[in-house]
Amino acid sequence: MAEATDGWMDDGPRWGVALLNMGGPATTADVQGFLERLLSDPYVTGIPVGGLRRWVARRVAKKRAPLTIPRYQAIGGGSPIRPQTEAQAQALSLALEGLPVAAAMRYSAPSADEAAQKLAAAGATHVVALPLYPQYCRATSETSQLDFKRAAAARGLAVREVRSYPALEGFIEAISENIHAILPHLMNPVVIFSAHGLPERMAKKGDPYPGEIHATVRALAARLPAGVPHKLAFQSRLGPVKWLGPYLDEVVRRVATGGQQDVMVVPISFVSEHIETLHELDVEVRAIAEEAGVRRFVRVPTVQTHPAFIAGLAELASRAIETAQAGGAS
C-alpha cells in the first residue's frame, strides 16, 4: 500500500479520495425530493429530453413517495447509507495513513460538490474517485463519476477514476466471511446471490453490469463449501419494463421445498445497508419465503467496514495513486 506521505508531498500532488455512492433520504421528509433527483437522471431513466425527464420525475416521485415513506418508517425513519458511508470513509482514511477521504452522494447529502469542497479544503489537489458500486453500471458508476468530475473540475481538482472491482480480493473475502459465519447454523441451505436489477434494454445496449455481476458470483461460489447449491437472482425491479432475470421473489418460491430447506440471501451489489436490504430483503422477500414454506430465511449483512473490504479499497486507492504518479501526475 502506498503510504500517505507518498501522495502528500509539498512539491507534488496532494491526494484525497472520494467515495461515490447513491445516497438516500435521511428522513421521511426527504423521500420525495430524493426520488425526484434520482428519476431526473438520464442515466437512470433513459429519457434524453431534459424538460420531459424532469416532468416525469416530478410526477412519478409525487405518486411514489406516499408508497415509499412507510417503508422508510419501518426501518427507522430514513436510510442509514450516509452514516455507514461516512464510517467507511473514516476507516479508509485510517488505512491510508491519514489521507483525506470524503463521501460523495449522487442524489442526497453530502453531494459531490460538498465532497470536492471538503477535499480541497483539506489541501488535496488530486482525488481518487472510488465508487462504492463494486460492479460497473452506467446508471450508478458512470453517472456518479461524471457528477464528481464536474464538481472536482469546478475546484481545480484532478481526478483519477477507479472503474469497478467485481472480484476484488478484499470485497470477496468480506462477503465470504459473512457467509461462513452463518452457514454452519443452517440446514440443507440454498445460497441465493442477490444483485440489484437492470432493465434489459440497458443490458442489450452493452452495459457491462451483467458480466461483472457474474464475475462476483463466480468468485464467491468458488469459496462455498462443496455441495452447497447457489443461484443468482435480481431484485429491485420497478415499472412495467422487462428487467434482468431471474427475479428474486420467483427464485425464492422455486427453491422452497415444503419448509425443509433453509434459504440464505446474499446481497452482492450493495456495500452498505439501505432500503433494498433492510426492507426489500428483510421484510418483503422474507415474507415471500415464509409464505412459500421456507424453513428458515437468513439475509447476510453487507460488508460495510469489514476490515478485508476496507483493505481492498485502500489497495485500489493506493494503486490508482501509484499509477498516476508513475505517469507524472501534476
The CATH architecture classification of the largest domain is 3-Layer(aba) Sandwich
Overall shape: it is globular
Gyration radius, rounded: 20 Å
* C-alpha termini separation: 21 Å
Strand content: 5-15%
CATH topology of the largest domain, anyone?
Rossmann fold
Assembly form of the protein: single chain
Range of helix content? 40-55%
Q: Would you tell me the overall average pLDDT?
A: 94
Tell me the major beta sheet: 4 strands, parallel
Number of domains: 2
Class derived from helix and strand content: alpha/beta
Uncertain runs are 1-5
Number of helices: 12
- Biggest sheet, spatial arrangement of strands: 2-1-3-4
Question: Can you lay out the helices and strands and say which pair or pack?
Answer:
Elements: E1 15-21, H1 31-39, H2 42-45, H3 50-74, H4 81-95, E2 101-105, H5 112-121, E3 126-131, H6 138-154, E4 158-161, H7 169-182, E5 189-196, H8 200-204, H9 209-221, E6 230-235, H10 248-255, E7 262-267, H11 275-292, E8 296-299, H12 307-326
Parallel strand pairs: 1-2, 1-3, 3-4, 5-6, 5-7, 7-8
